[in-house]
Amino acid sequence: MDMNDLMLRYFGTLDLSAVAPAALPAGIDRMQVDFGLEKDRGKRFALWSLLHMFDAAPNLDVAFKDEADREAARNLMDMMAAQMPDSE
User: Is the pLDDT of residue 88 over 60?
Assistant: First the structure.
């Protein structure tokens, strides 16, 4: 699943600054519902990744049954954290 496709599907644009403030929670809610219904591991991971970026992802132990998927999610979180500037 391509992140650009997900952005277009849930927000109608690739530019988050163009999303109306009221539309953002609605898109996130739709993603959470789709995540709960999705059976394909790869698609679930893509949805979880985008939800994580919005601080709306379920905990790893709830989101992924497979330890390898949880480890991949931890790796993604670590990589994202490494890209964030220090808050000092």
Answer: no
Tens of pLDDT, residue by residue over 22-59, are: 899 999 999 999 999 999 999 999 999 999 999 999 99
Q: Which two tokens stand for residue 74?
A: 């931890």
Q: Contact 42/70 with Cβ under 8 angstroms?
A: no
CB atoms near residue 12 (< 10 Å): 13
DSSP the chain: --HHHHHHHHHSSS-GGGS-TTHHHHHHHHHHHHHHH---HHHHHHHHHHHHHTT-PPPHHHH-SSHHHHHHHHHHHHHHHHHSPP--
Structure tokens that stand for 48 in this block: 């979880």
Q: What is the dihedral of CA 43, 49, 54, 57, to 10 degrees?
A: 80
pTM score of the predicted model: 0.88
